[in-house]
Design goal:
Number of domains: 2
Structural class: mainly beta
Order of helices and strands: EEEEEEEHEEEEEEH
CATH topology of the largest domain: Immunoglobulin-like
Organism: Aphis glycines
Helix content: under 10%
CATH class of the largest domain: Mainly Beta
Radius of gyration: 18 Å
Pfam family, one: T-box
Subcellular location: Nucleus
Protein name: T-box domain-containing protein
CATH architecture of the largest domain: Sandwich
CATH superfamily of the largest domain: Transcription factor, T-box
Largest sheet: 6 strands, antiparallel
Number of strands: 13
Strand content: 25-35%
GO molecular function: DNA-binding transcription factor activity, RNA polymerase II-specific; RNA polymerase II cis-regulatory region sequence-specific DNA binding
Shape: globular
Number of helices: 2
Distance between the termini: 40 Å
């Protein structure tokens, strides 16, 4: 049995903005990623689509990721986007670094949580919070891209994939 440990940044990056908050209240902004269903998927190249490939693996441990700049004031949140570019994903269930653990070939839904700040959040249900779900952010977790065009898009678009870029395509400043 082989086990692949993958540490990836979420791509594309999820960015959110907030409006109509108390400008003086402090807030923590968190993200978690939950399974969409209890199925495992596979990609059918001849159909260019995802197909159900069976029952889901046991769920990975659930983790909350607190944005590293939290807490924010409501006024700060009104003036900027909150970007989750530093969120790291892994399929290693033994991870101790706080990365979000996902099962490869399963579908997931990111959720954003806005919490009235009282300190570090360990149990969301013990807090005053609102959750936001954007259906267009559902994704299938993969450990490697099989489509070279998707791989190229990620390398060209993702600032954290610089090491994979062909140095002959880099400009003088990037070299």
């Amino acid at each position: 049995m082989t086990f692949t440990v993958v540490c990836r940044r979420m791509f594309p990056t999820l960015r959110v903005c907030f409006r109509k908050l108390d400008p003086n209240q402090k807030y923590s902004v968190l993200i978690d990623i939950v399974p969409v269903d209890n199925k495992r998927y596979r990609y059918a190249y001849h159909k260019s689509s995802w197909l159900v490939a069976g029952k889901a693996d046991p769920p990975a441990p659930h983790r909350l990721y607190t944005h590293p700049d939290s807490p924010f004031t409501g006024d700060q949140l009104h003036k900027t986007f909150v970007s989750f570019e530093k969120v790291k994903l892994t399929n290693n269930e033994m991870d101790i670094s706080g990365q979000i653990i996902l099962n490869s070939m399963h579908r997931y839904q990111p959720r954003i949580h806005l919490v009235k700040w009282r300190g570090m959040v360990t149990d969301l249900d013990a807090e005053k919070y609102r959750s936001f779900v954007f259906p267009e952010t559902v994704f299938t977790a993969v450990t490697a891209y099989q489509n070279q065009l998707i791989t190229k898009l990620k390398i060209d678009s993702n600032p954290f994939a610089k090491g994979f870029r062909d140095s002959s395509r880099l400009g003088e400043l990037e070299r």
